[in-house]
Design brief:
globular, 5% strand, 59% helix, two-stranded parallel sheet, mainly alpha, 15 helices
Length: 418
């Protein structure tokens, strides 16, 4: 039986290679069309230099990071800040609630570009979490590996929200009061790196500069707390399973584009080096320029976000391939051949992609360190105008990624059967 399955798998490899080549060619052609109509991001180089200079001055003075215990706040300051903390706790219960909260921020204040970028990235985080319980990965990783990888993804998503959402709410409160309240950033232990960005944004509403600042800040925020954390290095990022997870095509960040009826194509990028801080920052800037700087991507992504509530299942954007219903899922032992034969899969032959709340329960966490990550001027290297990539449509590449994962599943299955 094992030999027959391996033989069947090898027979389909040439077709899989041809499919990958054809997919790349189609994505390049579709990317050219997506890039035809641009939207200005209004990057202000003078403002960027001003913010960089203010941060350099902070570092030159050796200004110490002060926590809320060291700061003198008025009673009204503390009441406002505690209201924000309560709202953050309520909205931060799960990836589902965080993702919705980001969209609500963007809908209320469209100048907060980062909130919409965070909404789309948070959707992808949820899809990656449920992949671990889906039909593609269920037999490829043992339970300990799946749970450790889930905690890694959930922890990153939760910590970014914990740091960034109070900042978004503080801006909303400032708008309501008609006066800057950004002196309260320290109350939430937000890095001093961010105050110059918010103060500049309050003056000129420069969405691009603020977005770049938040991208740099949030990636630095999780660098030591998650990416370089000894537990996650030992159990996730240094494991062969984590690299297989990337090689299997599960490292694609997709932006579904909706035309009012269906998802017509997928914009996005492939994450090539998640462990590199500069690479993650560059990826974030690239995604931002694509999402908000290309008219077709922005309008399609906005339409999708408003029409399709986030569930964590990849059936949200690709119901012809995935299903959140186990009864409609593919039961054949080999997945690759099924995917090669058709652009879509009929009911009972789709890949299982559960909803997030069906896949994982609540996750308790250890206390979070509150020290400021800003130690030197290296973070200033990322303060530059975002540029959209040449390849921004990954519809076919994403399907090829799903196909790669299916073949990886098929390759592992005979050995799991033993």
């Amino acid at each position: 039986m094992k030999q027959n399955r391996l033989k069947q798998l090898l027979l389909h490899l040439p077709a899989a290679v041809r499919e990958a080549i054809r997919s790349k060619a189609e994505d390049i052609a579709h990317s050219t069309k997506l890039r035809e109509r641009r939207l200005p991001l209004h990057w202000n180089e003078a403002s960027a230099r001003t913010v960089s200079g203010e941060i350099e001055e902070l570092l030159r003075r050796g200004a110490t990071y002060r926590t809320q215990e060291d700061e003198e706040f008025t009673r009204s300051d503390r009441e406002l800040a505690e209201d924000i903390l309560t709202a953050t706790g309520r909205a931060g219960v799960s990836n589902i609630t965080r993702t919705a909260a980001y969209l609500d921020c963007y809908e209320a204040f469209p100048e907060l570009h980062w909130a919409f970028l965070a909404h789309m990235v948070s959707r992808n985080a949820g899809w990656n979490m449920t992949d671990l319980r889906g039909s593609r990965m269920a037999e490829m990783l043992d339970e300990d590996a799946k749970r450790a990888t889930y905690r890694f993804l959930e922890r990153s998503n939760a910590l970014i929200f914990q740091d960034a959402y109070p900042q978004l709410l503080l801006y909303q409160k400032s708008r309501e009061l008609g006066a800057s309240q950004f002196h309260l950033l320290r109350y939430f232990s937000v890095s001093r790196f961010m105050r110059p960005f918010w103060e500049r944004f309050w003056i000129d509403r420069g969405s691009a500069l603020l977005t770049v600042g938040l991208i740099i800040n949030e990636q630095n925020y999780i660098e030591q707390r998650v990416i370089r954390h000894p537990f996650y290095q030992r159990h996730v990022t240094d494991k062969t399973n984590f690299h297989l997870y990337s090689l299997s095509g599960l490292n694609q960040l997709v932006i579904p584009l909706y035309d009012g009826t269906n998802v017509t194509q997928l914009a996005g990028r492939t994450v090539t080096d998640f462990g590199s801080l500069p690479a993650r920052i560059a990826l974030g800037k690239c995604l931002y320029a694509m999402l908000m700087g290309l008219r077709a991507v922005r309008s399609g992504a906005e339409a999708f976000s408003r029409a399709v509530p986030h569930s964590g299942s990849r059936a949200d954007y690709w119901p012809d391939i995935f299903t959140a219903n186990k009864e409609e899922a593919l039961t054949a032992p080999l997945q690759g051949s099924e995917l090669l034969e058709s652009e879509t899969l009929p009911p009972s032959e789709r890949l299982y992609s559960p909803k997030l709340l069906d896949a994982w329960g609540d996750t308790p966490y250890e206390p979070i360190s509150r020290e400021d990550w800003l130690k030197d001027t290296s973070a200033l290297d990322g303060i530059s105008a975002p540029q959209a990539p040449l390849l921004c449509d990954i519809s076919r590449e994403h399907r090829a990624g799903v196909l790669k994962t299916a073949f990886a599943h098929d390759a592992v299955l005979p050995f799991k059967a033993d």
